[in-house]
Amino acid sequence: MLSVSFSPLIPDYALWALGAVVALLAILALVTRGPVAILRAVALGLVLLALANPALVQEDREKVKDIVAVVIDRSTSQTLGDRSPMTDQVRAELERRFGSLADVDPRFIEADDGSGDDGTRLFAALSNGLADVPPDRLAGVIFVTDGVVHDIPPSVEGLGFRAPLHALITGRPDERDRQIKLLEAPRFGIVGKDQTIRAQIMERGGTGSALVTVRRDGQVLTRQQVRSDTPFSLDVRIEHGGTNVVELEVEGLPNELTQANNRAVIPIEGIREKLRVLLVSGEPHAGERTWRNLLKSDANVDLVHFTILRPPEKQDGTPINELSLIAFPTRELFQQKIKEFDLIIFDRYANQSILPSSYFENIVRYVREGGAILVAAGPEFASYGSLAQTRLSPIIPGQPNGSIIEQPYKAEITDTGDRHPVTRDLPGSEQSPPAWGEWLRIIGSQVQSGDTLMSGANDLPLLVLRREDKGRVALLLSDHAWLWARGYQEGGPHLDLLRRLAHWLMKEPALEEEALRASAQGRDIRIERQTMAETADPVTLVAPSGQESSVALTESRPGLFTAQVASRELGLHTVRSGDLIAFVSIGPANPRELMDVFSNTEALAPIAQATGGSVRRVAMEGDQSITLPRIIAVHSGSRFAGGDWIGIKPSDSAILRGVSVFPMALGFIGLVLLIGSTLAAWLIEGRRRA
Known about the structure:
By secondary structure, the protein is an alpha/beta fold. It contains 13 helices and 36 strands.
């Protein structure tokens, strides 16, 4: 390539000023001397040209290959139907065709899901993939996608290049799908009350109605037929505190795109208005205040506490009108309002004819219908007034053997207790013997049913838990827990133990013996299986696409088995182990990738047509094969697509290998021109005077 360049010997402003003077002198000379002054003007022009220092520049350039960017959409929506194998076929065919084009260098760019809930970001992937490519080397861009793109620029100026853009759309125009959309979903609910959920079934190619199944914690509540595209409401009872998992599932359509959006899960946190606890102390004693302080310190506990100071049979001649005591409201507490309590604690209570037998029957019925009692036993438990000798005996897990052992001992956690959430990892239990103070008394008892979590002197049972129908019962066979609270021999974890015990009785989900939990850590799923068994069977993990896999668990702590699995899909995953079920969502609760699952050619059409490109499907309805257009080079024009072809725009990009410069106003040639023009002007003007 040849070109002319100028390298002035004087500053530009001086060169322009000198040029103006030369032009003025030339005009004056022409006016005063006539045409003969042209030679003077030529001579002055040559001087001016010499000062501009012109030169011929010869560049040695090597043509480089044009870049064609091929962006492959690998987002979640591209896994639906047969889009993934279709995409692989298109890529393989494009690689084959570009291999026959000698002057084209294809660059394939893979685009995954955007971070967070950004959806499909093909233009961002294109920009990152071409960061090292000059814009003038780009001959074209080809998208292989389903058309669901979430970062389309508003105008062609936002692209950053002027090459044609073509989109090859996977999927088929006759796709059908059904999904359930949540309109209103509560996050919290009061235990024992109903919560309303509003939802709507969206479908394309459906039947106009569908069967919706409602589950709570994996148990089917109801099934009902619902019209499509019409909002409907459901009332769900919040059964317990903690997370109540409500699942809405709509039946699928034959050959629908995906069933990952046929299910919606609403975790509703059950909140108790107040945990009502009835504490009945049989007599004043040192440990009474420990229970009271523990329960009063919990703002969520409404405590009703009675201490029996004067049994009915006591006769000391004190006039009734001088007694400052109130009567124990037995009928109100144990008959009228017993169901209002979440927990009843009998603290060193002996049967002193205060409660008739019918009231003990009410307590048994209360427990079997879902209530809870805790018996904190003292010496009275081994006497004739023991609660084990009343009609409570069928639900009390241990029967006293009449012995009361008073000797120092350290409470030990049993093998069963090591696995139970109530006593596992109690502070100080990691040592042997445990790093806590001694207790001084234990009531001998024979455990008939339930789990013994702690033992005391002579390996006698100290803490026993039992389930009774829908309710729960705990038996603590010592009244010396207060020694830990008072710091005797540096004390012990009385708050942890007694609080866990009370909350297990009130059905705290985190303290369940058999539980399955799942949580998300980025794109990984962490699974926890709490069990009292020695081993845990593998759990079943169901991905949003419906694909099932078996996950083996390893024991991280006694009774706690865990696993961590990398998820390849966004959306709601289901974990099952027998009758237990847990849900975990990877990514956003309602990902953009699954909100609009139908492939389309409309979204990319405006931006593609503005570049001269096109948008077209690679497969049509009922056609199992793919059809790709021809790829040709179009050197001029504004249209780069036809009925069966797409075009790329070759560029003139080249690599500069060398430069040769030939000065024109310096050296012998410049001197000859300057002297020649001066002599010509002198000779002609001399002849004219002669």
